[in-house]
Structures are given as C-alpha cells and as structure tokens.
Amino acid sequence: MDQLVFQTLLLIHVAGAIVGFGPVFTFSLLGPMAGRAGPNGVYFLEAILAIEKRLVIPVAVVTQPLSGLALIFVGGFASDFFRHYWLVVGITFYLVAFYLAIFQQAPAIERMVHLAKSGPPTPEFMALAKKTQRLGPITTVLLVGVIFLMVVKPGS
Questions:
Q1: Beta-carbon count within 10 A of 136 CB
Q2: CA 49 to CA 20: how far, in whole Å?
Q3: CA 39 → CA 44, 97, 118, distances in Å?
Q4: pTM of the predicted model, to two decimals?
Q5: How would DSSP label each residue in 66-130?
Q6: φ/ψ bin of 155: left (φ > 0), alpha (ψ from -120 to 50), beta (otherwise)
Q7: CA distance 29 to 42
Q8: CA distance 52 to 22
Q9: CA–CA separation, 51 vs 54, rounded Å?
Q10: Segment 47-103, tens digit of pLDDT
Q11: CA-to-CA separations, 125 to 24, 71, 120, 136, in angstroms, rounded
C-alpha cells in the first residue's frame, strides 16, 4: 500500500511540475513578442500574467509543496532529511524561484500591463521590462536545477 501511495503522490508531483511550470518556458518567447508587437504587446503581457495567476501560482503554492511534503514523509526522507543534500538544495532552489516569481516577476508584469494600457512606454515600464528580462532566466535555470536534482538525486 505504501508503494501505491508513494507512486500516486509522485505522479501528482511530476504532473504538477509539468502542468504548472511547463508554461513558464514560453515566457521567454512571449516577452520579446510583446516588445515587438507595439501597442498590442499588452495582450502578450496579459497572457503571461493570466498563465501565471491561473496556472503557475496555484500549482506553486498548493500542489507542489503539499505533494512534495507528502513524498518526503511517505518516501522515508524525513528522518534523515539533511543527509539528502539533493533534496535540501532542490527545495532551496524552489523557494528562491518561488520568491522571484511571486514577489518580483508577477508584480512587475502586472505593473507593466497597467503602464502599457496607459500609453506609450515610460521609463518605469522600460525598467520593469529589464528587470523581468534579468529575473526570468534566473527563475528558469532554478527550475531546471530543481528538476535535475529531483530526477538524478546526486549522492543518494
């Protein structure tokens, strides 16, 4: 029974990663498209924001932490948690990516949408665009790092 529970939780966790974080990889395409679209670029920014708010954030806040925590306990990693450095580093990467996405990227994009609807690009808009261009790849690399660590489990 424990094996079935573990496999079910693992399926939920992996599906959550695919469904919740897969779309993040499209942001590196949609962002530049927004810049090239002129006044209609706001629609690309709204799409990024909608994907983030309706899909990425709910999975990042609920599905991944709960299924991951359950996997730690059901999989027997809780008793010697800190000996599994791949797990500790992976969770740390996740927390940093979570912080960047929720508290930096999302508010910046939301502000960019507001500014884009108000008229031509302002210096504030351009500064926010540069910020998201810097943070986006960092978040993506962190998520790839999490995936690598969870799949390969180096040192285990």
A1: 19
A2: 14
A3: 10, 30, 10
A4: 0.90
A5: HHHHHHHHHTT-STTGGG-HHHHHHHHHHHHHHHIIIIIIHHHHHHHHHHHHHSSPPHHHHHHHH
A6: left
A7: 14
A8: 11
A9: 5
A10: 999 999 999 999 999 999 999 999 999 999 999 999 999 999 999 999 999 999 999
A11: 21, 42, 9, 16
In the block, which residue shows the tokens 């884009």? 116
Looking at this protein, which amino acid is placed at residue 131? Answer: K
DSSP structure class, residue 78 = S
- Where do we find the tokens 């990516």? 97
In terms of Cα–Cα distance, which of 55, 56, 57, 30 is closest to 113?
A: 30
CA distance 135 to 140: 9
Q: 1 to each of 5, 6, 9, 92, how far by Cα in Å?
A: 6, 9, 12, 31
**Token pair listed for 96:** 């940093």
Q: How far apart are CA 147 and CA 17, in angstroms?
A: 8
Token look-up 């599906």 returns 15
